Amino acid sequence: VKMKTSLIVVLALSLLFMKLAVAQEKQALNLSLEDCIAKALKNNLNVAIEQLNPELASLSLTKAREMFAPRFELSCANNRQETPSYWWIQGAGTNINKLFDYGVTIAKAIPTGGNLSLSLQSYKSDTNQAFQLINPRYGSTLRFDFSQPLLKDFGPKVARRQILLAETNLDISQLQLRNTLIETIYLVQEAYWNYVFAIENSEVKKQSLQLGRDLLAKNKKEVEFGQLAPIEILNAESVVAQREADLIQAEGLISRSEEVLKSMINLAAEGDARLKKLVPVDKPEFKERRIALDEALKEAMERRPDLKILQKSLESKELNLSVAKNQMLPGLDLQLSYWSPGISGDRLIYPEGDFFSPPIGKQPGSPADSLRDAFKLLYSNWNVGLTLSIPLSNLTTRADFAYAKIDLSQSRVRLKNMEEQVALDVSDAVRAIETNAKRVEAYRIARELAEKSLDAEEKKLKVGLSTNYFVLEFQEKLANARSMEVKAKIDYILSVERLEKAMATSLEKRNIKVGG
Question: In this predicted model, what pLDDT tens digit does every residue of 127-146 receive, in sequence order?
Answer without folding.
Answer: 877 667 787 889 999 999 99
